[in-house]
Amino acid sequence: MGVIARSILKPQSQDGLNAVVFVRSTPPASCTIDGIQVASKCTLGRGTIRVVEASDCIVGRFHLEGRTCTITVRPKVLSQFFEGVNTAAGGAFVKMASDVMTASDEDLFEIESSK
Q: Measuring CA to CA, which residue among 91, 105, 100 is closest to residue 28?
């Protein structure tokens, strides 16, 4: 999500970009926050990321100079992920992770941006 947001909004530095993440506050969903911090350079420590509890979605909303980029994990992907995390073990878990890593951004996310 962070990489996509940075490619769309094109911040000139790590300053200025802010994010609001709508996500469950417990793992594995909350691990999304870690990934967004690394990829977007928005951090909890600097106060450039805010987390809002959401039990039924994972959404990152990124802001830069009046522009917004909203990235939502597709509901089908989200349900498959949670089902897989609860049931997959060993090789099945590795395959699930591999499938996510090789999927296109469009297959994983709904992406909206405004100028």
A: 100
Averaged over successive runs of 10 residues, the pLDDT of the chain (115 residues) comes to: 96 90 93 95 95 96 96 92 72 78 95 90
Torsion of CA 48, 56, 4, 104, to 10 degrees: 160
Q: Quick check: is 54 in a domain?
A: yes
Contact 36, 19 (CB under 8 A): yes
Overall number of domains in the chain: 1
Residue 49 neighbours by CB distance under 10 Å: 22
pTM score: 0.90
Segments forming the whole domain that contains residue 20 = 2-73+105-114
